[in-house]
Amino acid sequence: MVQEYLIALGSNLGTADYTSLKTIQNCLRVLMSGSCKIRRVSRFFVTPCFPKGAGPDYINACAAVSFDGSPDAFLRHLHQVEAEFGRVRETRWAGRSLDLDLIAAGSDILPSQEMFDQWRNLPLDRQMREAPDQLILPHPRLQDRTFVLVPLSDIAPNWCHPVLNQTVRELCDALPAEDRAEVLPVNTV
């Protein structure tokens, strides 16, 4: 069954051949040439590395993508594309040649509300060390991530978080203004 997925794209290291911006642009071309159909793409943004000071700034964007397959199959596909761009998963929250995060699959809550709540409420020190061994949707910290919500507002401002019952626009507006001000469209940098 074809479903629309929301994904976040990021790069702060680029590849041997491409800057971070070119890496994201080329990634979108690779996604379009495969089993995905890109429906909408946000503007590109420069965002501070997270956690702050841990590396070069990121280029971030979001996309709405149609894919004929399950969320797990789509996540595997995203990981394959990351690998094509040299992504190595060694250290949690390390710099990345390419980062593709599955943010949401419609209004699905996976694998359960209980598991979602567990990961959403995980203390920061544990977030830095632990990763779930299964797909959690929507992304459990979507509501905290300015670098996702600002670009997501470009393509899905009215998407409603199935647990928090707030739209992307409402979630973004609830973030501190100073955090939103740090997310700059590429053409203004």
From TrEMBL:
Top enzyme category: transferase
CDD domains cross-referenced by the UniProt entry: HPPK
Domain 7,8-dihydro-6-hydroxymethylpterin-pyrophosphokinase: 7-157
Superkingdom per UniProt: Bacteria
GO molecular function, one term: ATP binding
Family listed: Belongs to the HPPK family.
UniProt keyword annotations, A-Z: ATP-binding, Folate biosynthesis, Kinase, Nucleotide-binding, Transferase
Pathway(s) the chain acts in: Cofactor biosynthesis; tetrahydrofolate biosynthesis; 2-amino-4-hydroxy-6-hydroxymethyl-7,8-dihydropteridine diphosphate from 7,8-dihydroneopterin triphosphate: step 4/4
Annotated protein name in UniProt: 2-amino-4-hydroxy-6-hydroxymethyldihydropteridine pyrophosphokinase
Enzyme Commission code(s) on record: 2.7.6.3
Role description: Catalyzes the transfer of pyrophosphate from adenosine triphosphate (ATP) to 6-hydroxymethyl-7,8-dihydropterin, an enzymatic step in folate biosynthesis pathway.
Statement: the UniProt record of this protein carries the keyword Zinc-finger: no
Single GO BP term: tetrahydrofolate biosynthetic process
Keyword ATP-binding set for record: yes
UniProt-listed InterPro entries: Hppk, Hppk_sf
